[in-house]
Amino acid sequence: MAKGVHLVRSAAMKKQKQQSLKRSKPSDVQVRESTLRGAGNGLFAVSDFARGTLLPVPYKGRQLTLAQFKQLKDFRWCFQVQEGNCWAVDGKMLKVGNPLRWVNGARSPSQLRRVNVVGIKLEDGKAWYVTTKPVTAGSEFIIDYGPGYWKAYDEHWAKPERLRLKALRAAQAKKGTAKKQEQLQEMLEDALDELDNSL
């Protein structure tokens, strides 16, 4: 498996009958600052959602076999929808136009208690998020990526990003005395060396 590749197994891998699920509209959701610390933006309910309601659009991506998935070098999410197949989504593809990219993953025990959506594959062959319990207006939609996701995230994405930001801050810091400049240059070089070693 390629470095950083991790398959996330959805709690709702089995196919659901589309007729038994309620549909929501794009106007039923809103993007704003997440309630999860450090998560950036999140996706929120504008109106009440009953249990078993589909979020307004499918999670866009392409179906891959497990062998194809293992060859991926960069990805953001993968639903395993049936044994031997998965639904892989390239996060770069979701930068515009898909509100589901703002559904954040629970990490801590308190966040896991707030999980209210799961990923499923419907008969239309697309991956969707569906509510697992009633969601009141104003609540954030939260999914459980699973512990394997966070382990892979910490190993392959979080550390390099923290180091990149540390180097950027050092490079952009106001220049003061010669000693301060020397310290900043040393911090920048250390952060860049650590970043190179982690990749």
UniProtKB/TrEMBL annotation:
Show the Pfam families listed in the entry.
PRDM2_PR
Biased region (Basic residues) positions are 12-24
Chain spans, region Disordered: 1-32
Q: Which Gene3D superfamilies match?
A: SET domain
Where the record annotates domain SET, the positions are 31-153
Q: Which InterPro entries match?
A: SET_dom (IPR001214), SET_dom_sf (IPR046341)
The protein here is known as SET domain-containing protein
